[in-house]
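Students often ask why we bother encoding 3D structure as a string. The short answer is that it lets us treat folding as translation between two languages. Here is a chain of 227 residues written in the first language.
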Amino acid sequence: MEQRMTQAQRMTQAQRMLCQAQMLSMRLELVGAIHGHEKFRPQALCPKCNRSLTPAEILKGFVDDPNDLNTTCTRCGHRFPPKLVWQELVSAMEVPFFCASQSLARLRGKEVLDPDAFRREDPALYHSTIVHHGTLRNAFTSIGIIYGFPEVVDIEKKIRPFLGKLPDTMIAKIAGLRVSQVRGLRKKEHISPCTRRDILKAAKEAQDAETEEVASATAVANDTVAT
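And here it is in the second language, the structure alphabet:
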């Protein structure tokens, strides 16, 4: 009986981790969509044991210290700085990746820059900030600074594909909208609210697709070697 309960608890923990990974993946997709078909991927390969950390592990490994830019390897405990891979339609860039509090600590003085100038002057801070806070306006507001430059257009159109796939509260926070606005838009589109079951189902589908893709790539590689 005790063994069966332990197995059930492990399954619950595994499902919880799967849901967290899916929500983070969808969150990064939403941020990218808001800012115009951009893609973001936190990346960290431990230089000590060669373990590749997942985005969720990278975020969890940060400490709340503006001067400590390292994350923690989940295998050996070594601390090292992660990267953020940013990609748009015709270009890509790898920059240092700051945690949410580190981004806020570096923002003061940047409120005089419009988004394009900000991105040119400090791409690492710019991209880390929007990954964590959704928009520059959200980030500056959280430290009591009004950011007066226009940043995102057609916000309701850009969040529409994510309605029902992420909680209304998360979409609202990232997009800088009220929860009631997001809920009203979702109801107008006759979309059911996001549930944990929906997230878990999407996570399993993504996991199955990834497994199938790896198996297909392996089969192609084996065929190439055989010939």
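Translate back mentally: DSSP finds ten helices and five strands in the chain. Keep this in mind for the problem set.
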